[in-house]
Design brief:
The chain is built from 10 helices and 10 strands. It is α/β, with parallel strands linked by helices. Strand 7, helix 7 and strand 8 form a beta-alpha-beta unit. The longest helix has 11 residues.
Length: about 280
């Protein structure tokens, strides 16, 4: 199965057995928008609302930390999503949050996954129909979802990243925009210092996309990674503000055949708020 699917492909397969479409819109810095209300006002026919904003460890004070196995299974049971379904994610977020959903599902063992190239905007531009209301799949038991483990090898914790600062066996890549990476712009979260993790390089997630909102692919994507200083010989650890846009870089690396990757889920919201961690400013690593 391809990692990306087109709106034309998806429009012909909405009724296929085992195909599940999930709206993965998350709007962390758009308080004027309501992802759930927008879903109800019009979504891809048959799509289910993932509510990515709450698909997290609600007991953890850090924002959007990956949920535990039980919490994830309960959500999938309520949505009627099985591990072996052919799952297609789309979103209508400037942060391209489908990639975060894609990573979360890989974390829990799903592999028949794809992202709708261009997302909700591409669907609307194609003039394809929308469905209104609270559509959702038939609930099943948690055991029937097939999700049985969480692969924590795909996650890096604060202690892991501390070791990388001193002994950089893995390369840290930051998905935030250049002004936040350099420290020129303050962090939007109170109590979080400006700057970046020492030794990390900057590849803003916004550069992953063409002007029409579709993902860069092939040579254009590989050239972007190379020009940013990504080392082809070292495993990659992606970070950002809170583990959301970093997943976009991880998905892009996957499209380039790189699966020696992980995500620092606490990201800068954790690192920058900790007075004991070293911080760097400026454009250099």
């Amino acid at each position: 199965m391809d990692d990306l699917v087109t709106v034309e492909w998806l429009s012909r397969r909405l009724e296929d057995p085992g195909v599940v479409v999930l709206d993965a819109t998350y709007l962390p810095f758009e308080p004027e928008r309501d992802a759930a209300a927008e879903y109800r006002a019009g979504h891809i026919p048959g799509a289910r609302f993932l509510d990515l904003a709450t698909l997290a460890d609600r007991a953890d004070p850090r924002p959007t930390m990956a949920p535990g196995l039980d919490g994830f299974r309960e959500r999938m049971a309520a949505l009627g999503v099985r591990r072996d379904d052919r799952i297609i994610f789309y979103d209508d977020s400037p942060h391209r949050t489908s990639a975060r959903a894609w990573w979360l599902f890989r974390l829990f063992g799903a592999h028949r996954l794809a992202i709708l190239d261009g997302g909700a905007e591409a669907w609307r531009e194609a003039g394809l129909p929308l469905e209104k209301g609270d559509g959702h799949g038939a609930a099943i038991t948690a055991q029937r979802t097939g999700f049985a483990h969480r692969d924590d090898g795909l996650i890096r914790a604060l202690a892991d990243v501390r070791r990388l600062v001193d002994a950089p066996a893995e390369q840290l890549i930051d998905a935030r925009g250049a002004p936040r990476f350099s420290g020129a712009d303050a962090d939007p979260r109170p109590g979080v210092a400006p700057g970046h993790i020492p030794g990390s390089i900057n590849l803003p997630y916004s550069r992953l996309f063409e002007a029409d909102g579709r993902w860069k692919k092939g040579h254009a994507l590989a050239e972007l990674f190379e020009a940013s200083g990504v080392d082809p010989a070292r495993p990659l650890v992606f970070t950002c503000g809170s583990g959301i846009t970093a997943a976009g870089l991880l998905f892009a690396a996957h499209m380039l055949g790189r699966d020696d990757t992980a995500l620092y889920d606490g990201s800068w919201s954790e690192w920058g708020a900790d007075p004991s961690t070293p911080k760097a400013t400026g454009v250099g690593a």
